[in-house]
């Protein structure tokens, strides 16, 4: 008996959807990496606190005593003015001061914010574990 051979074709895998998914994953990881590295190097003091919620702007005092509004370094008066403008638009003001900044510099910044109309200002801290 003679066997009849059938020409079986190999199944084909469509690569276009796989390439589309791969491209989307690459875009996602590139954008995620771009936005996670945008913080200023500030070592916050440790304390217990309530997580900040809602829309907010951050004034940062770094270890050298320089004031940053977002990523931009400004004079203390310009930073306070920018923060107060955002405060009047409904955003909360948060102050992130490095743990090595003198206490007087933080008080000066808070006083300038209060004198310009910033009634409620939050201080950012690093969560500490209580034992």
Mind explaining what this structure looks like?
This protein has three helices and seven strands. It is elongated, with a radius of gyration of 27 Å. It has a domain of 82 residues: Nucleotidyltransferase, domain 5, CATH 3.30.420. It is of the alpha/beta class.
What's the quick description here?
With 131 residues, the chain is of the alpha/beta class. It has helices at residues 16-36, 76-88, 103-115; strands at 46-47, 56-61, 67-69, 72-74, 92-97, 121-123, 126-127.
- The CATH architecture of the domain at 46-127 would be 2-Layer Sandwich
Coarse structural class: alpha/beta
**Quantity of strands, as a count:** 7
Task: Please give the radius of gyration in angstroms.
Answer: 27 Å
Helix and strand element order: HEEEEHEHEE
Brief descriptors of the model:
131 residues, alpha/beta, Nucleotidyltransferase, domain 5, two-stranded parallel sheet, 7 strands, elongated
Topology:
Layout (H helix, E strand, L loop, with lengths): L15 H21 L9 E2 L8 E6 L5 E3 L2 E3 L1 H13 L3 E6 L5 H13 L5 E3 L2 E2 L4
Parallel strand pairs: 1-7, 2-5, 5-6
Antiparallel strand pairs: 2-3, 3-4
